[in-house]
């Protein structure tokens, strides 16, 4: 009835004779090894199943089949092939190869290298965690000592999940590269960081003093994980890579010389959008330590500064600042708000978005997407008995009309408007549809402004301008002996400036250039009498009354050697 078991059934301590004599029927050691292989196989199947579901690996079911199949085949071979050790080792190797192959597939789906499994880095992390061994290079990974801590979303406690993710990814290459990127940007006085993916790389560009400058690009893999980390910090949806998103976060920058001081907080505004090559990101850096300035710090000529002070300090009126994007308009208005006694006056701001916090001020964020428009919010704050209202921007008829009405009914209103110069800002307001007489009676003054780069004090060069060039600029030929310019400016070797102080651009920092258009009674009459303002006539009258134009103001800085003709021509044209 019982046929002898085949000799190949190597799992048993079969001595070739059947039936056995007394003694052990089973080789317990071998059985233990088989159990271990069985356990490893079960664990692998379970892990692949869970992991592929979580990551939605496309070929997930196939991997499950492969994992299950390996076990079945292994079991068959154990019984069918007489060489136990060979088969057992084969099973273990097969399981290991399978685990590694699956890990490679799933690692491709996980952008953050800190979450990659079965990679050399992963083993180093495990060794560090469980064996307390540190295999990282001398001084740790790059950027280990960067004194920056991500604080998370601005103005609110970060949620626990974000914190958990950040703690988990602190060791990852992406996290360290993100810190390094921000640290370099802060050192170089950068205002905007641009990250743009191409096929293999992520291009990095910094805006410094208003000029974009290409930086060393990152490997695309690192670039993507930097982007991911920053999206998590700003609490954006990391799975959404196409639709534009925006958010903000704060980072604490510690002072390496004073480690106990707690450092300072820097705000970052994040905007992402999809492109053909992948997701782009722009980070705007809002350094609060540079935010608080008053009118004395903005480089006004004393006369202009005093005129602005008197406009800003009046009980009612409309003060507009105009210029292109990035001309420092909001900085001027923030400084103007600082002139106001915010303890005795009710100051309300409407901003899109709120850039800097101002003490003792109600700051309201306008967001058209959620239905909070300038005009709508403006109407509702007028019911809150404000003395001073700051409106981020006037760009539609409704806002313009309410702003003018508010200025006429005992409120001081500050705002910005998009136009090239002060006089054309006036016609812009009328073009928006506000009645000229309403404009005339509400407007107190318009400030046109630009930011020009200052020549680097360490490498600027003196030169003697030609009389023709001076004549063209209406400058006195006999009085000007020399002007200054950036090294190599206007020649081909402008790229070869090795000055470290300015990074080779020949410029460092910026100065404001201003033209202040004060609405006098005479000009008020002119506006009211014209159905459409005659800009030229009005400008001539304003110059007669003492206004000096942007370009003229810029030339003052050229003569004093603070900037170059090339720069004011670029900025004030
Ligand atoms: Zn320099």
Question: Secondary-structure map with pairings?
Answer:
Elements: H1 28-55, H2 60-80, H3 84-109, H4 120-131, E1 148-152, H5 160-169, H6 173-187, E2 190-197, E3 201-208, E4 211-214, E5 218-219, H7 220-233, E6 245-253, E7 264-275, E8 278-287, H8 302-312, E9 317-322, H9 329-339, E10 347-351, E11 362-365, H10 374-382, E12 388-391, H11 397-408, E13 412-417, H12 422-431, H13 436-442, E14 443-455, E15 461-463, H14 467-472, E16 483-485, E17 507-518, H15 521-529, H16 535-544, H17 550-559, H18 565-572
Helix pairs in contact: 1-2, 1-3, 2-3, 6-7, 10-11, 11-13, 13-15, 17-18
The structure holds zinc ion (ZN).
Zinc ion binds near residues 458, 459, 502 and 506.
Task: Describe the structure in your own words.
- The protein is an alpha/beta fold and 573 residues long.
- It has three domains: 82 residues; 150 residues, Beta-Lactamase, CATH 3.30.450; 222 residues, 3-Layer(aba) Sandwich (Rossmann fold).
- Helix content is 40%, strand content 20%.
- It is built from 18 helices and 17 strands.
- The strands form three sheets. Strands 1, 2, 3, 4, 5, 6, 7 and 8 form an eight-stranded antiparallel sheet that branches.
- α1 packs antiparallel against α2, α1 packs parallel to α3 and α2 packs antiparallel against α3.
- The N terminus is likely disordered.
- The structure holds zinc ion.
Distance between the termini: 107 Å
What CATH calls the topology of the largest domain is Rossmann fold
Number of helices: 18
Question: pLDDT under 50 segments (min length 5)?
Answer: 1-10, 136-143
Main sheet: strands, sense, barrel? 8 strands, antiparallel
Radius of gyration using CA atoms only: 35 Å
Mean pLDDT: 85
Tally of distinct domains: 3
Strand tally is: 17
Outline: elongated
By CATH, the architecture of the largest domain is named 3-Layer(aba) Sandwich
